[in-house]
């Protein structure tokens, strides 16, 4: 057995840590330059891409099936993602006094909870709104809108280069 496995301290020494000796804190100027170089994805851009994808998948579904009930279900499925995402984007981007990192994290979690509960509520009342919904189409609308988070991230990454 090695000396390291016999130690009671579960944390390695600083010298044992990977990259610990290479760590160098940034100067304020370097940190500002790093922040200036980062382009964040706007939550409103994600919401607009989700909405556009929902409309596009609805039009494609209407052309392929020719059935309006399928199109309404596709659109409603996308809306079950887009509308709660818009509420979250509004809540997270509105102006407010300076917040601590902890309160920002709590705010994010609360708005995420609002978004999830809004989506679940919209899916729960789909039977009364669509009468009857075409569930496979509705779920396709949900999945397409959800996958637009990845598309927005990839689009942002490509536009940087």
Shape: elongated
Helix amount: over 70%
Whole-number tally of structural domains: 1
Oligomer: single chain
Q: What percentage of the residues does DSSP assign to strands (E)? A: under 5%
Mean pLDDT over the residues: 84
Total count of helical runs of at least 4 residues = 7
- What is the succession of H and E elements? HHHHHHH
Number of strands: 0
Q: Roughly how many Å apart are the termini?
A: 50 Å
Which blocks of ≥5 consecutive residues have pLDDT under 50? none
Helix/strand structural class: mainly alpha
Let me know the largest β-sheet.
none
* Backbone CA Rg: 23 Å
Descriptive overview:
The chain is mainly α and about 160 residues long. The chain is built from seven helices and no strands. The chain is about 75% helix and about 0% strand.
Annotate the secondary structure layout.
Layout: H1 3-6, H2 28-37, H3 43-65, H4 68-93, H5 101-124, H6 126-130, H7 135-160
Helix pairs in contact: 3-4, 3-7, 4-5, 4-7
Concise overview:
The chain is mainly alpha-helical and 161 residues long.
Any descriptors?
mainly alpha; elongated
